Amino acid sequence: MQLTQTIIKFPDLSFRTRDAHKLRGYFGHLFKEHFEYRFETLWMALNENNYRNYVKSNQSEKEKLLKKVLTGNILSFYKGINYWTKQEILLKTRLEEHKTQFKDKTMLAFRGSFVCNAILPDYIGLGKAVSRGFGTILLN
User: Which domain holds residue 87?
Assistant: First the structure.
């Protein structure tokens, strides 16, 4: 039985489960470029509270709310790999609303892409219900 499966890949390096802690050192280049990602699966961004705010908002406020949520999702991913930053994550989003079924309820989710100054591995999930396949991203 082999315990060292590749779990995180970047264009120029990959990490095995036992070496994942080394990922923190890769983030020295974090905010020097902009990277475009696309959601391969629907992104479930909104919880009950921010959904109510979202539906009452105009287009500009909706975009601002989604950027704030996505920033929080990225920071949550970083926290999960024991990485913290004091630098601002810059985002530009292109998202479309889509309805989806989740636990027998109709939910609002989003399809599209975003550009940011954060390096993120392919196939991570951002947002709600990532364990069910929502929010999977890929570098464009």
Answer: 33-139
pLDDT in tens, 41-50: 999 999 999 9
* b/e burial code for range 112-133 (CB count within 10 A of at least 16 → b): bebebebbbbeebbbbbbbeee
What's the whole-model pTM score?
0.80
Helical pair 59-80 and 48-56, crossing angle rounded to 10 deg: 160
Judge whether 55 lies within some domain: yes
Q: What is the CATH number of the domain that holds 115?
A: 3.30.70.1900
> Long-range CB contacts (< 8 A, 24+ apart) of 113-116?
113/36, 113/37, 113/38, 113/39, 113/140, 114/36, 114/37, 114/70, 115/34, 115/35, 115/36, 115/37, 115/91, 116/34, 116/35, 116/37, 116/74, 116/89, 116/90, 116/91, 116/92
77 found inside a domain? yes
Domain membership flag for residue 123: yes
